[in-house]
Amino acid sequence: MSDLSSTSQPPQRNRANGGVAAGKPATTAPSNATDAEVLARAQAGDHHAFAQLYALHKRRIYSLCLRMVGNVAEAEDLTQEAFLQLHRKIATFRGDSAFSTWLHRLAINVVLMQLRKKGLSLISLDEAMEPNPEEGPSRSFGAPDLTLVGTIDRLVLEHAIADLPAGYRLIFILHDVEGFEHNEIATMLECSIGNSKSQLHKARLKLRDALRAQSRQEAQR
Q: In terms of pTM, does the model score above 0.85?
């Protein structure tokens, strides 16, 4: 990342360093500063503090973007755009949710806008959030689905996740990959906790079906 002490511009992308470059250690906020103090300084226009926030959060934002679009260069561009949005809007953060939740919401909006621009025939986030009246009573969704853990080839699972409709894929990534709780996801996506749980369940069912189909194909070879 460019030295933010000399410019008001947000960080620039550097493909050689995983999409966006890190801030210079010498210019970051003091290591004993609390996250709240760093955030407050960044909101007040301290570019060194913004650099530290960037260094702390860039990997998770890039991971989210990459898993949603499946293309390294595109994920780098979306990560850059997410931090551009952060640079513009950080002063509006009021602490109603965790900062990481708020930042992920910014990134999600950037990703969904890109998916809509591409006009992909994928279930949108809004469609994924719609309740399905034909569905009967559902079971509890809180526990991880152990049938998807450690029993299949990781590459096959990654491909299956990439093939999920966008709305289902997003919630699966946020919960099962990134580790956010349903209340945090509900805040990010402006939906109910029940909807978050329901969509995660649907995503897991689709994954299971896809993996079973893959297994049948392998058995027939």
A: no
